[in-house]
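User: Fold this one for me? It's FAM91 N-terminal domain-containing protein.
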Amino acid sequence: MVLPFPLLTVASLCRTIEHCIKKRLQWNTCFARKVIKEGEYYEEMMRYLRKNLALFPYHLAEYVCRVMRVSPFRYYCDMIFEVMKNEQPYDSIPNFSAADALRLTGIGRNEFIDIMNKCRSKKIMWKLNKSIAKESLPTQPVDFVIEPWWGVCLVNFTLEEFKKLSEEEMATIDKVCKEEANSFILFDPEIVKGLYRRGLIYFDVPVYPDDRFKGLKGLFPTGSSHYEDPIEELLYAVFVVSSENSTVAELAATLQADLSQLQSAASFACRLGWAVKSIDPASVLHDSTASGIPNINLSDEEDGSRASVSSLNMSNDGTTVQQGDILGTENYGPASAYTRVAFVC
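Assistant: Here's what I get for FAM91 N-terminal domain-containing protein.
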């Protein structure tokens, strides 16, 4: 049976969106931007990832973390809860997702089994109310290794969150906005960790084409996912052919892989400590990341407003420019020479 042209077109567009989501493509660089709104696209992607217990999309953090306010910690807590609620075994979680969830939540196989045993011991209560499993899940991420060269990035604050900041936290946020480099080593680690635990910042793990890594050789987790994950597929390939003498660009050429996806895979390996970036310590202090620091909006969620009524532009040389424009959360692309902080009254 041949579908009418309009229906055929709709079906084709749906397949295109599905393809972009499965490939974890950024909205503003793929065809999906022509047929679906940015927010709807990422909402649909996150539903797909949760359903398949997939890796957190760190390469899309500038929208997922900053605009949607979905943190990796909360994402994995929700994932673990869904597995528990459906009484699925721990092994149903793909290897890389399980490793990342353990890093952030502290819940591995033994902890998972222990929580499930406690829930099942409540018998009737567990059968009637699966949500009791949430009571055993952590409320804050556990401590994990943060490398000095990782970038500190801000989310879109609400006005209430901004009011609760201490003077030290305000100074740190101001420094993130003003500094050309936002490497973790440049800030007070305890203040940064405190902001992270409250979901007010997220970490960027930058990987560049000429970077080299060590530690990947010989590391090869067993098993594979039941769904399509370009990052995970590349990780398995990288574990086999990686060399300390090869740059990321050279490795991408060897694997005939997309360079940006390979950078995302290497970045993920660094997060889990499976790879060590060969880096000149001095470069951490001089690595300019101003172009990667997004506009930071302070919005009031109580009335649903996302517009600002006044803003302060801070340039890299410390000068300030008053500006009264309106900022929207859709503008999360590369920033200009100014880092903008907007306040909502």
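One thing worth pointing out: Residues 5-136 form one domain.
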